[in-house]
């Protein structure tokens, strides 16, 4: 990678956690590029957003082969170079599955696409390796042994240090662990999952045994439910917003008129009041801090379509320590959607070391 003057990384007041059972330290808040970087945000603003994040102690950036049809990786790679960021300071993650072309082997998790897809991603990023490579979805059409072996090959080649999953079921993650264990190979270290105040079952219940058994980490996404938890959709869909710009949210927008959607907006209003009255903050920061407060969360991937949004969201580090048990309880009462724990039929639960 050709670099000009290297910009020193200063973690400032960022907190770091291990990514699952690995030794890799990731910032509690990272930055992702879905729909934004290289998509609705192009050119200098991409640089401004990444620079702002980096200067605030965020050194982890998430992208995917399919984001903006490959342009997210291209833009991220360009900016890393232009800003003169030191590769060792950064944790770069990308994801494979959707592919960019329509051929039968251009997507999915075959050995062929995992290897070719990795090489193409690295080329777009202009990097020799990423830190973590994710399987962006499970692929029921490929034997798990092939998937595990292929990601291990990618690691052996030095193209990635770790591999991980995204939107896999607990059963699929378990299977990957069993296969890796049987073959003496490296298992996935984390799951990139949707986790927000309205989406809790999978990260809080379905994966619960995996945190205990495998120390699974999470890189949580859509923590603001794509913006819904900011309160910006309380009175309709503002022009230029994600729900207005991207057709894929049509069902979500229609849903806001229905009972379930109205209930969500009612909760956002109550959360706004709680945030203002008790913490002098915004529902946005409350929602981001709430996912970070979960000890199974390794990193919350922030999404921002402007420097201004990221500036606001970065204040989460001030709000995070204020989420006391009492505040968490008040949030829980508003949400009223805590997943019921896995049934133990009267048997007391064990901790991760098997102790009572
Ligand atoms: N693995 C996966 O399948 C998967 C799926 C989704 C995301 N991800 C990853 O997670 C990252 C974050 O996900 P996400 O973008 O869905 O997160 P999100 O935080 O739920 O949504 C971010 C969007 O909300 C709006 N927003 C953010 N801050 C705001 C603020 N302060 N005020 C008003 N609006 C604000 C912006 O959209 P507008 O300004 O356009 O309205 C922004 O792009 C992605 O970039 C990607 O790296 C992964």
Automatic annotation (TrEMBL):
Stretches assigned to the NADP-dependent oxidoreductase domain: 31-335
Top-rank taxon: Eukaryota
Family annotation (SUPFAM superfamilies): NAD(P)-linked oxidoreductase
Keyword Zinc in record: no
InterPro entries found in the cross-reference section: K_chnl_volt-dep_bsu_KCNAB-rel, NAD(P)_OxRdtase_dom_sf, NADP_OxRdtase_dom
MF terms (GO), sorted A to Z: oxidoreductase activity
UniProt keywords, alphabetically: NADP, Oxidoreductase
Family: Belongs to the shaker potassium channel beta subunit family.
Name of the protein this chain belongs to: NADP-dependent oxidoreductase domain-containing protein
Provenance organism: Amanita thiersii Skay4041
